[in-house]
Design goal:
By secondary structure, the protein is an alpha+beta fold. Helix content is 68%, strand content 8%. The chain has 15 helices and six strands. A four-stranded antiparallel β-sheet has the order 2-3-1-6. Strand 2 (119-123) and strand 3 (127-134) form a beta hairpin.
Length: 511
């Protein structure tokens, strides 16, 4: 412990002997550092914040109807490519920085410097920031404003151009498919006209045409059977229906008397009451009984002697009989038409079967032509659907503002610099000077080869008889004369530092 104390005292004494070198080093470092801090140029920062709304309401509504352009993915890609070389070159041109570029090398350095100094940030999914620092506040503002304009232009215009290119491509392909479809349809028309309609329209291939004809024959045969049974039933009904009816003028209810009057009353009552009204029901029953009585009386007087009508009666055609005959004629006409269709279908089967066996190449050509037409129609319909989806998506981007960009904080001309932090720098310079005031004497003390005591002499291996210590002690005046100049020199540095701090704070150049 004694050795350590002696070692420390020795080095302190050695450093104290070189105290003015330490003070000089502190002054040199502080003065040089503070001058350099004062010469550092101010850095001004321009900043812009914008909010991007990808319209989360419209996108689900257009799902499955329009092409999904994925605005969020496009904005992410746009943010990543905003500082690409083409965009930076556009920025240089619009901010007139190319006027100070003297060659390709200087342009490359300017591009790299801008890419490094421009700061892009994102807060959340929809809030973006653009910031740039420069010694010229006007240039900083122009750079941020130009980048903001490029961002908005790319975000709103890139997708529109892509949609426009896609729409033009689809329209060109649709026109090409229309020409091919017209050519194939002309071939089909000529083919069918040449072979007199032997091929079934709408059938893709001969085999499908044969299947359709067999199905049609089965349907026709079923319809023929139904119509034949219907004719038989109608003829049987016609045989049991009288062709002529006897109309009597003198019979009860005849001549339009009681029955006609009762029916007139019934019509009047129905105008006032519903069919479920008891008076209406009773009158309907009464009219039905009167008609039955009149019919029985007419049956007795229908035919007199020698087949002649009885006196007071006359014969009229039965309308029911005529209706049944008309219906029989119509059904028989349908049967005739069905038989003609059946015959045509059977002839078509015979012709197609003959074509399959005798002219296979013709059948192959027909099948190939139909397949090509079907493929073309399918592709044409798909392209038409895609074109419609593209039109809807383009309308959503241009008319419905699918991507909305709102500038929350536009770039303004900065008035106060944000860098350098002069308060921090002058404080660091002061600490470095004070540290030099201590470290420099200590380092120089390591090079001192003088002897500080008897023990240092004995380490040489020579006999030492003794040493003479300092007699007496220093007075207060002597001590002040030794310590006061050093303290005053360092105090002046502290006073200068305080003045710099006050000036910095008053100028409010650091936040």
């Amino acid at each position: 412990m004694e050795f350590l104390r002696a070692f420390i005292q020795r080095h302190i004494k050695a450093a104290w002997r070189r105290r003015w070198l330490g003070v000089a080093a502190a002054w040199a470092i502080c003065l040089a550092g503070w001058v350099l801090v004062a010469l550092l140029p101010n850095q001004y920062e321009a900043r812009a914040e914008l909010y991007v709304d990808t319209n989360a309401i419209l996108t689900p509504l257009l799902s499955g109807i329009a092409v999904n352009t994925s605005p969020a993915g496009q904005l992410d890609m746009l943010q990543r490519t905003l500082l690409s070389r083409p965009n930076i070159q556009t920025l240089i041109s619009k901010t007139e920085q190319d006027l100070y570029v003297t060659g390709p090398g200087a342009r490359d350095q300017l591009i790299r410097r801008l890419q490094q100094n421009i700061m892009l940030g994102q807060q959340g999914a929809d809030l973006f920031t653009i910031a740039y620092r420069n010694t010229d506040p006007k240039l900083a503002q122009r750079v941020v404003q130009t980048l903001l304009s490029i961002f908005i232009e790319r975000a709103t215009g890139t997708n529109h151009r892509q949609m426009e290119n896609a729409r033009r491509f689809l329209e060109h392909q649709l026109a090409s498919y229309q020409q091919q479809l017209r050519a194939v349809q002309a071939q089909e028309t000529a083919f069918r006209a040449k072979y007199m309609g032997m091929f079934v329209p709408g059938a893709v291939g001969v085999n499908e045409a044969l299947v359709k004809l067999h199905t049609e024959i089965a349907s026709i045969q079923s319809a023929l059977q139904d119509r034949s049974l219907e004719v038989q039933a109608l003829k049987k009904e016609l045989a049991g229906t009288q062709r002529m009816l006897v109309s009597e003028d003198l019979l009860p209810g005849g001549g339009g008397g009681p029955i006609a009057q009762a029916e007139a009353r019934l019509q009047m009552m129905k105008l006032q009451y519903t069919d479920d009204y008891p008076g209406v029901i009773a009158l309907e029953k009464q009219i039905a009984a009167m008609k039955r009585d009149a019919a029985r009386a007419a049956a007795k007087l229908r035919v007199g002697k020698a087949g002649k009508p009885a006196p007071g009666t006359r014969s009229v055609p039965n309308p029911v009989y005529d209706q049944i005959k008309v219906k029989i004629v119509l059904v028989e006409g349908e049967i005739k038409s069905l038989r003609q269709k059946l015959a045509m279908a059977r002839r078509g089967i015979i012709q197609l079967t003959h074509l399959q066996t005798q002219e296979p190449n013709l059948v192959t050509d027909y099948d190939s032509m139909n397949r090509n037409a079907a493929v073309l129609r399918k592709d044409y319909d798909e392209l038409l659907d895609r074109l419609q989806s593209a039109n809807i998506a383009e309308a959503a981007d241009t008319q419905a503002n699918k991507v909305q960009i709102q500038v929350i904080d536009p770039p303004v001309l900065p008035r106060l610099p944000v860098a350098p932090n002069r308060l921090l720098l002058v404080s660091g310079v002061l600490l470095a000077g004070l540290a030099a005031a201590v470290v420099v004497p200590l380092l120089l003390a390591q090079l001192d080869r003088s002897f500080f005591g008897v023990e240092d002499l004995r380490q040489l291996g020579l006999p030492v008889l003794g040493g003479i210590s300092m007699l007496g002690s220093r007075t207060i005046r002597q001590s002040l004369r030794i310590y006061l100049p050093v303290g005053a020199a360092l105090s002046v540095l502290l006073v200068m530092y305080g003045g710099l701090v006050i000036r910095i704070l008053r100028s409010t150049t650091v936040f």
